[in-house]
Amino acid sequence: MDTAEFRKIIYANYKKAGRVFPWRQDADPWGVLVSEFMLQQTQTHRVIPYWERWMGLWPRPADLAKASLETVLREWSGLGYNRRARYLKDCARVITEKHGGIVPGAPEELLPLPGIGAYTAGAIACFAYNYPAVFIETNIRATIIHFYFQDPLKADADKVSDAEIFPILKTVLDRRNPRKWYWALMDYGAALKKITANPNRRSAHYTRQSPFAGSFRQIRGRLIRTLVSEGPGSAKELAARTGIETENLYDALEALQKDAMVAEEEGVYRIGTMQD
């Protein structure tokens, strides 16, 4: 497809139906970073009230770095994937201690921060500093597949890989305003999923999310919520509070300790690490 025509279509849709989010209206680098952590595997409309509350509580990295993990997890409750909250707090600490409280502006500087991978580094650099990074997420992927990989006869073995998409993203990137360009790409992909079969089903990286009910993730989340709301307790007490079977309980507690979410001392478990 012709690059100029593709850009024209994407920008026309953005002008007509671009979405409005608080982290777009104020591209404060710290606010952008917080939004990217929250948006991972979470629907956008659910993130808005959390983001607004967090930015009111912790408007700078130093503010979040000083908060207790228990308080952070309490404010995170309902977003899921609690490990993200731990990473975000750790990220705030590193930014405060090593970067003077300023969110780094290039992907290679962002990548070493806790909880930040290739996509998140590129997205933060782009949306916070208008840096022309090349990155991909689900809505971007859907847009590119819809326009550039329309062959319905492709076999499953020939599904579209991200390695095929990245060169296209480099070619079509609007380097004069990458921030606006990626917003437009994402918004087009989000709209596509509402009016047609999800193009990402033709992606080699497409997987259906496993059910949450009864999952190990649900057990971990229940333990975190219980410790946050009811305080420390022994394994026996936690089993009684949560109704989690003993074997699953100990497996979850062990995993949470490895993730530095829960500490144990003399048989009593609590939120945090032994250093907190």
Write the layout of secondary structure elements.
Elements (H helix, E strand, L loop, with lengths): L2 H15 L4 H4 L3 H11 L4 H14 L3 H6 L2 H8 L6 H16 L8 H4 L7 H12 L8 H11 L13 H11 L5 H18 L20 H15 L2 E2 H8 L3 H13 L3 E4 L2 E4 L5
Antiparallel strand pairs: 1-3, 2-3
Helix pairs in contact: 1-12, 3-4, 3-9, 6-13, 9-12, 10-12, 13-15
- Biggest sheet descriptor: 3 strands, antiparallel
What is the strand content? under 5%
Mean pLDDT metric = 91
**Helices and strands: which structural class?**
mainly alpha
Q: What order do the SSEs take from the amino end to the carboxyl end, as H and E?
A: HHHHHHHHHHHHHEHHEE
Q: What form results from the Cα inertia axes?
A: globular
Helicity range of the residues?
55-70%
Q: Count all strands and give the number.
A: 3
Please state the CA-atom Rg, rounded to the nearest Å: 21 Å
Low-confidence stretches: none
State the distance separating the first and last CA atoms. 55 Å
Highlighted features:
276 residues; 60% helix; mainly alpha; globular
Structure description:
The chain is mainly α and 276 residues long. 60% of the residues lie in helices and 4% in strands. It has a 3-stranded antiparallel β-sheet with strand order 1-3-2. The N and C termini lie far apart (55 Å). The mean pLDDT is 91.
